[in-house]
Please model this.
Amino acid sequence: MTSLLNRYMERTSRRVDAVLERLLAPEAEEPEAIRKAMRYSIFAGGKRLRPCLVAAGAECCGGNAGRVLKTGAALEMIHTYSLIHDDLPAMDDDDLRRGKPTSHKVFGEALAILAGDGLLTLAFETAAANARECGLTGSATAELVKVIASGSGTSGMVGGQVADLGAEKWRRRLPRARAARLLEYIHLHKTAALIVASLEAGAILAGGTAAQRRALRAYGRAIGLSFQVADDILDVVGDKKKLGKKGSDAANQKLTYVSLYGLDRARREAAVLTRRAHAALRPFGRRAWLLRDLADYIVTRDR
Model:
């Protein structure tokens, strides 16, 4: 990671954490246990990638990153809710997340599910409040909510998760060509959709044009795919202590780029996707420096 990218992400992460601290402060009218469980997972670590993408999307369109931090926090809540649910025994059945016991291991399955639900619904309340603060019209606010919901729901992340569940033990059931199509669908929806939504949310809050939003969508799809390809590679060759997880894809017979194509082809695919991401950013010129550096970082990271 370049020093400029590292400083930007660290600064944005600190600012978003401060926003999250305020948003997730204990509330007298709700059970203490639910807020404790929500806070446990949201403050368990992580790079705050999606909030950084919201901020960068806004800046590419001439906006102010500081004005969109609440929506960045909202996207982080949605991401965290998805991780809580992904780790459940009925899903990936993971004991560790970011080097710490998963939510259901600490609070039990029922409260972990409800903590995820709480984060998801609070996210939309937070994004709507940010839209009002940014002076968005009713139509633009509706578009913001639509983009986030689409990236999160059955046409996005949730749909990708469903397809991922159905792809387990794929070697026994799917011909190679069909497995390849399913693999791309999973990556585009489970991972890339929320990344695209983060970028577009920033653009909408900053008053970005339709052309700018199209460019950011193309970039987001490319880095969303490369991010997942890199994850698949790290699950095989990465340091599990740095990753903070056991690396269960092979054990669960998951459909991944490595399991389908092998390490060498997966690495080549990541390089192609990075070039595609760079090409999508040309209309933004120098304002897209962060997103260019981020595309490079995604395929070289070690965690």
In short: The mean pLDDT is 91.
